[in-house]
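pasting for the record
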Amino acid sequence: MGKDELSMKEEEKEARERKLRKKAKKESKRAAELLKISEAETAETEVKEPADKLLNGTTNEKQDEQSSILRLSKEERKRAKKEKKKQEKIAAATSHATPLPSTPCTADAPHPLSKSEAQAWWEENEILVSGPGCDAFLPTLSFAGVGFPPDLLKCTEGFARPTPIQAQCWPVLMGGRDIIGIAETGSGKTLTFVLPGLERIRKAGAPDGGGVDILVATPGRLADLMEEGECDLSRVSYLVLDEADRMLDQGFEQAIRGIVSHCVPRGRRQTALFSATWPVAIQALAGEFLENPVKVTIGGEDLSSNKRVQQVVEVVGEFEREGRLRGLLTQYHGRRDNRVLVFALYKKEASRLELNLQRQGYKCLGIHGDKSQSDRIAAIEKFKTKEVPLLVATDVAARGLDIPDVEVVINYSFPLTIEDYVHR
């Protein structure tokens, strides 16, 4: 073969190769366009590998990959499209979800107390724990160690550590057990049952069929609403009887029995009963309403007044009391705006004292059974803000008031029972 012929054949070969490369480039561009169009129809994992090989391999490999993509059957594209939609649906459903913590935040929690350490703490704080399986519930001396999530722990900001009733009762309530808590007013009972209740709601989610998460009520009014068909308690699974002794003192035993009978039955309901005293009537009620409860007693079961309050007893005659009251107000109140609370035994007595003190120039209001609810609320708010720093009250105000910095409490007339005196 001559030199010219060889040269011609090489040129023809190069021309064919250029033509093939040009055709391959064109097909590669077309394949890329097909890939772009079919993204919504083909799963990303099925497209990525052929595309990489198509764009980076040899001409023959590109042609093979292009052919395999073009040969995707209609059924395969349909399956890929369906799978992609499924993945998009899952992603959309979880994109705004807030994951619940699988374990509580306990970074600041101290080591769990040993049984001997717990025993020493019980003795130091005069705490008695009794009931089936009570040994399993050792006190928790830090908020972070209880197991509440961070959002609930915000409720404890400003407090250095749990009170004794909280430290001992939280592990019991978080463990799902029924509980009896005996402790004086102001010991932190409210937060004791509120935080476990909120955590229970957080885990359970919204109530089925609508309705409120939490219902706070006095027994008399709630019994009325139930009788009128306005309240359905059949799904109440967390029940708190707060200040149970006081509710019985005020004659609400039958109303309480009716309310509890409409809740989830005992054994499937968690019940917490808190009281400042432990009389026989409360013991009987607890025996009916609670299932194998753990009982936590702070400071002993015997009724006692608050040891942190200085008490002074004066014996004066019937007709000397008003004069002595004026002397005490001059001594402890004068024209200052410090809060002073005066207790009277009867409504008429409280009304008379309120009027007489106003005539003497004192900023004074009264709360008793003859006052409307709105008048009572207004009087308490003015007392809290010191707009009216002197408040005359019957025992209607002895329970449930949360008013800090009351400097002096005067019992103008002694209550009928020691229990009422302690609650005042």
